[in-house]
Amino acid sequence: xxxxxxxxxxxxxxxxxxGRLIFSKHRVGRFPEHREVLEQL
Length: 41
Hints:
Low-confidence stretches: none
Largest sheet: 2 strands, antiparallel
Number of strands: 2
Helix content: 25-40%
Number of helices: 2
Structural class: alpha+beta
Strand content: 15-25%
Order of helices and strands: EEHH
Mean pLDDT: 84
């Protein structure tokens, strides 16, 4: 799994892995904690 940063717009910050959304700043209203992302991996 190679991390890829894709430029977005309007403050959208989504974390996806293999096409699966694991965190969305837009939905939650904040940036993720490290553990929140790591637990999904």
